[in-house]
Amino acid sequence: MILIQAEQLSKTYRTGEVESTALKSVSFSIQAGAFAAIVGPSGSGKSTLLNLIGCLDHPSNGSLLVCGSNVTTLSRTEAAHFRGENIGFIFQDFNLIPVLTVFENVEYPLLMVRNWPAEKRRERVLQMLEAVGMSEQADKKPDQISGGQKQRVAVARALVGEPKLVLADEPTANLDHDTAYRILNLMKQMRDNFGTTFLFSTHDPKIMQEAEQTFILEDGYLSAAGGKQ
Ligand SMILES: Nc1ncnc2c1ncn2[C@@H]1O[C@H](COP(=O)(O)OP(=O)(O)OP(=O)(O)O)[C@@H](O)[C@H]1O
């Protein structure tokens, strides 16, 4: 089953009189259950593409289907609802809320988008903390855990609402190499256990090797796509 389908997708940013085309007629598809990477140097369009797939921005041209829905023209409210139902996010700087505990950070998306009773929420949060090996740190605040542990919490938070798709913008950029590989392996394990599709961006060719499917962006063009499944 195809989870993401882009056809001649383009994005032009306009700042006053200045136009900059960050994505140039990109077409590709990604199957459900994929572990895929968007790879390219700084400024090649990786974040732009992830933002379009994550319904955080609209394309200028082309079509984009995500989880069976045409997301090209969603309103702001529709996009927020769509994200809440279908997509989890992981960021390079973790984006944990400093005043909340590890447990509360993972619970947070459920409070925002799922109307679950407290006991069901608690069970799900504990299940996710267990899955990422962070159960014993549940009561700590983000400043009491390491960068790798913060990203584990972020993986749990991204998955807690049972999304079909997780988008991760440079999830390993702020981690040392060993920790980066451990986080990628954790993400892959989550894909295997929960069937969640993962799409992450990286500028690091070594990190790219960990993906099963790769899309190479150069100056807004999709220059190559490959898979090793
Ligand atoms: N909001 C914006 N307004 C104007 N131009 C933008 C905007 N966002 C991105 N761009 C431009 O679009 C191009 C692609 O940027 P994008 O952030 O998608 O690249 P990237 O591959 O994610 O880079 P990095 O690895 O540095 O994050 C760049 O030339 C950038 O300057």
TrEMBL record:
<dbReference type="InterPro" id="IPR017911">
    <property type="entry name" value="MacB-like_ATP-bd"/>
</dbReference>
<dbReference type="InterPro" id="IPR003439">
    <property type="entry name" value="ABC_transporter-like_ATP-bd"/>
</dbReference>
<dbReference type="GO" id="GO:0022857">
    <property type="term" value="F:transmembrane transporter activity"/>
</dbReference>
<keyword id="KW-0067">ATP-binding</keyword>
<protein>
    <submittedName>
        <fullName>ABC transporter related</fullName>
    </submittedName>
</protein>
<dbReference type="InterPro" id="IPR003593">
    <property type="entry name" value="AAA+_ATPase"/>
</dbReference>
<dbReference type="GO" id="GO:0005886">
    <property type="term" value="C:plasma membrane"/>
</dbReference>
<dbReference type="GO" id="GO:0005524">
    <property type="term" value="F:ATP binding"/>
</dbReference>
<dbReference type="Pfam" id="PF00005">
    <property type="entry name" value="ABC_tran"/>
</dbReference>
<dbReference type="GO" id="GO:1902495">
    <property type="term" value="C:transmembrane transporter complex"/>
</dbReference>
<dbReference type="InterPro" id="IPR017871">
    <property type="entry name" value="ABC_transporter-like_CS"/>
</dbReference>
<keyword id="KW-0813">Transport</keyword>
<dbReference type="InterPro" id="IPR027417">
    <property type="entry name" value="P-loop_NTPase"/>
</dbReference>
<feature type="domain" description="ABC transporter">
    <location>
        <begin position="4"/>
        <end position="229"/>
    </location>
</feature>
<dbReference type="InterPro" id="IPR015854">
    <property type="entry name" value="ABC_transpr_LolD-like"/>
</dbReference>
<dbReference type="GO" id="GO:0016887">
    <property type="term" value="F:ATP hydrolysis activity"/>
</dbReference>
<comment type="similarity">
    <text>Belongs to the ABC transporter superfamily. Macrolide exporter (TC 3.A.1.122) family.</text>
</comment>
<keyword id="KW-0547">Nucleotide-binding</keyword>
